Amino acid sequence: MDILGILGILLGIVTIVLFIIKKFNIIVAAPIATIVVLLFNDVPILETVFGKENSYMTSLAGFIASNFAIFLLGSILAKYMDKSGATVSIANKVLSVVGTKNPYNALVALFIISALLTYGGINVFVIIFALIPMAKPIFRQLNLSWKLVTIPVFGGTSTFTMTMLPGAPSLHNVVPSTALGTTLTAAPVIGIVTSIVAILFILIFMKFSLSRSLKKNETFSVDEKVESGNEASKRDLPPFIFSLLPIIVLLGIILVFSSVSNIIIVALIAAIVLSALLFRKQIAQQKDVLNQGANESLSSTITTGSTIAFGSIATSVPAFKGVFQLIQSIPGPPILSLMIGTGLIGGITASAVGAIGISVANFAPIYLEMGLDPETVHRAIAIGSGALSIVPYSGFLIIFNNITGLTMKDTFKNGFISISVTHWIAMAVIVIMTILGLA
After folding, report:
1. Is residue 231 scored above 60 in pLDDT?
2. I want to staple 346 with a disulfide (CB 3.0 to 4.6 A). Which of 35, 128, 234, 389 is the partner?
3. What integer is the mean pLDDT of 92-106?
4. How far apart are CA 213 and CA 57, in angstroms?
5. 76 near 120, Cβ under 8 Å?
6. Contacts of 174 (CB under 8 A, 6+ apart)
7. Is the pLDDT at 432 greater than 80, yes or no?
8. How far apart are the C-alpha atoms of 328 and 325, rounded to whole Å?
9. H helix intervals, 42-123
10. DSSP 8-state secondary structure symbol assigned to residue 162
11. pLDDT: is 384 or 82 the higher one?
């Protein structure tokens, strides 16, 4: 086993985490951490970082090419919703329904909205671009700690609707389905049971966190650099139905034409054009909205791509085969080592989808030969992928912090518990079901 190479992978992860703690941009931290990994793995550095094939740069470029349009259009739509005051109008309507006497109801409402959007097939980045501006005025009016927004949004977008619930159209469900020849409803009993357990845990954790926050007298506070809701609230707000219409059109097009290639891009363009028409009275200079959205999308795309590029190199070095061997030696039911292995890859790559892609190619054949059912392998890999997908260098977490104006200190704990711990509990449920012969 290449101990030195494995040490290099660990040091690379430590490097990128330390850089993030010291508030270096991930765009700087990721390539440096990649070089640290390569130094300990006897791999040509210049070729692996800057080469034209299977390099850090090609991985980064591939992600940008595949996802930039979604980030750009999602950011522009979010700006239209925010600057027009549409998010405030929607928030006022939500508050009029759930009331202001019980803040927990507002958190649950946000959790349900996040879950429904994700299960409807909406890209999680599109959801946070659109949802955060809507959530902010709700938290402001209820005077709740803005840090709490992490729980309902992460719990709704990145747990049971992403990896557990049968039929989910997320990549986390599609990738193993394509690779293993299973359906999107694979292992329905496992999926439904783990989803119920996950929902209960998130709701309990959300209630506990809210109660603790209120006891500490924590109130609403946002970095002034990202605060724009007060400006919107002072203007005439668009009617509720006008405010909601772009989101309805976005969801409707995606759901009705889900089989059409690149339909998310078409839906986002339609929602933006509609926003430009509906909110022309509220936004005098639409050029500014377009420019701001475009500028912010650049950073978001490169940030996420940088973390995935680091992970792709860290899991491609020869020493990573030793990690595979360690994973396969984990005692207990085979399903446990499969989920832990997938989760560890998710931690290294900072990407649940990346972990699934590597796991179905490298782990799945081994476990299928052991006699595990393909549907069980499908669901186990999907759920295991979320076990460590939230790390300090996760692109999703960094972008979430940029949009909300919160810091890593504000969001990491709640985000980790909401996503990773929820998946750990789901993994434990699967192991118990396996021992009892129910999976």
Report:
1. no
2. 389
3. 80
4. 43
5. no
6. 184
7. yes
8. 5
9. 45-50, 56-83, 86-98, 103-119
10. I
11. 384
- What is the Rg, in whole angstroms, of the alpha carbon atoms belonging to the chain? 22
Q: Rounded CA gap, 426 and 191, in Å?
A: 9
Stated length of the chain: 439
* Closest C-alpha among 200, 124, 81 to residue 352: 124
Which residues have CB under 8 Å from 335's CB, separation 6+? 367, 372, 376, 380, 430, 431, 434, 439
Please name the residue ranges forming H helices in 216-285: 229-233, 240-256, 263-278
pLDDT band for position 232 (cuts 50, 70, 90): very low
For 358, the token pair is 């590597």
| Distance, CA of 285 to CA of 132 (rounded, Å) | 23
Instruction: Please state the rounded mean pLDDT for residues 29-34.
Output: 92
Mean pLDDT of the chain: 86
Give the residue-averaged pLDDT of 298-314.
83
- Reduce the DSSP state of residue 237 to 3 states and report it: coil
Alpha helices in 279-416, H assignment, sequence order: 286-314, 320-328, 334-349, 352-362, 364-369, 374-384, 395-404, 408-416
Angle between helical axes of 26-39 and 3-21 (0-180°, round to 10): 160
Given a contact cutoff of 8 angstroms between Cβ atoms, the answer to whether 197 and 228 are in contact is no
Residue-level pLDDT at 229: 46
Q: What type of residue is 221? A: S
Interval 385-405 mean pLDDT:
88
The helix, strand and coil proportions of the chain, stated in percent and rounded to the nearest 5, come to 75, 0, 25
Q: What is the pLDDT of residue 246?
A: 87
